[in-house]
């Protein structure tokens, strides 16, 4: 495993970070989830990312149980706040002071820890003044409940405003968690340059495009039984944008590139996002321990310019790049 600094901070995290979105507390049984966490630890992963909304708080509980007994100082535990949780009452959502202060206590209890290393705004709250949100995060940090603050799917302008307030309030906003993969590159033109300017790193989710970049989905063929594309609990919705023959055909052209490098297609996809200097970590999930062992082999892989060009030549026609999609794919009003 290799480690990278997160933003303009002294915090190092594993460049392969274990995330339990869409798996723990929902898609896989708790004992298998614990086996996946154990596999991550055995592979050298020290950084674990979750959120209160995953499986409506159950994912945090599963992760807390799986990490129980580990040396806390050797781990980096991340969670998030924004989406509706619990009974989903009128204040059980968003980034109001009330919700943040209550949500962090719930997350810490479920994770069985006194603090999280990174507390992230899971989206931008258009209905709460940014000053209120940032003051609440500042107080969470001063109370010792979080060491650093991050965001997820914020635009470049939102990042600039957030970092400016964080400096005024005396805490560090050091990370952004966007979707990023060979196929989805909407952060490259605006979010990444702003982040480099601000001292913010990316912790990217879906580097394998919900599994499409593994190559297991073939054009004109039914999805494999038990795959995410057949999951009615949410996985099939997330992957649907990529389940088109032109995309799946282009992805198959990546296989010879991976073969030449003695990598699986999944490893190639994870290694590709890690070539971006502004990316501190790629989030990978797993429904089986062997998936962890497979993905972690992307750590430390270097792709030269010729390989990067071959990748662009193979899939360039189906890549999504429009920077406006960061804002368009975020809620325009607070979810309930």
Automatic annotation (TrEMBL):
Any Pfam family matching the protein: Aldo_ket_red
Region (Disordered): 216-235
CDD domains, A to Z: Aldo_ket_red_shaker-like (cd19074)
Protein name: Predicted oxidoreductase
Single annotated GO MF: oxidoreductase activity
GO cellular component, one term: cytosol
Similarity annotation: Belongs to the shaker potassium channel beta subunit family.
Domain NADP-dependent oxidoreductase positions: 15-314
PANTHER family listed in its UniProt record: HYPERKINETIC, ISOFORM M (PTHR43150:SF2)
UniProtKB keywords: NADP, Oxidoreductase
């Amino acid at each position: 495993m290799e480690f990278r600094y997160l933003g303009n901070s002294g915090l190092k995290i594993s460049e392969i970070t274990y995330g339990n979105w869409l798996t723990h507390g929902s898609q896989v049984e708790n004992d298998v989830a614990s086996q996946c966490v154990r596999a991550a630890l055995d592979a050298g992963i020290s950084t674990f990312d979750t959120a209160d909304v995953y499986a409506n708080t159950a994912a945090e509980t599963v992760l807390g149980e799986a990490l129980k007994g580990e040396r806390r100082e050797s781990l980096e535990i991340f969670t998030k706040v924004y989406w509706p949780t619990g009974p989903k009452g009128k204040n059980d959502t968003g980034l109001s002071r009330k919700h943040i202060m209550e949500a962090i206590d719930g997350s810490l209890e479920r994770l069985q820890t006194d603090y999280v290393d990174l507390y992230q705004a899971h989206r931008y709250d258009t209905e709460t003044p940014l000053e209120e949100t940032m003051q609440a995060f500042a107080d969470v940090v001063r109370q010792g409940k979080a060491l650093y603050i991050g965001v997820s799917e914020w635009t470049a302008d939102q990042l600039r405003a957030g970092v400016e307030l964080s400096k005024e309030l005396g805490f560090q906003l050091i990370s952004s968690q966007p979707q990023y993969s060979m196929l989805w590159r909407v952060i490259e033109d605006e979010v990444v340059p702003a982040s480099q300017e601000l001292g913010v790193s990316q912790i990217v989710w879906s580097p394998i495009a919900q599994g499409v970049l593994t190559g297991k989905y073939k054009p004109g063929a039914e999805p494999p039984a038990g795959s995410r594309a057949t999951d009615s609990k949410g996985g099939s919705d997330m992957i649907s944008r990529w389940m088109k023959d032109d995309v799946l055909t282009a992805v198959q052209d990546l296989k010879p590139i991976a073969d030449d490098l003695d990598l699986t297609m999944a490893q190639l996809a994870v290694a590709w996002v890690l070539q971006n200097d502004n990316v501190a970590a790629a989030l990978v999930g797993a429904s089986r321990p062997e998936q962890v062992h497979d993905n972690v082999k992307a750590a430390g892989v270097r792709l030269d310019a010729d390989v990067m060009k071959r990748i662009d030549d193979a899939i360039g026609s189906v890549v999504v790049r429009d920077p406006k999609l960061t804002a368009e794919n975020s809620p325009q009003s607070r979810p309930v």
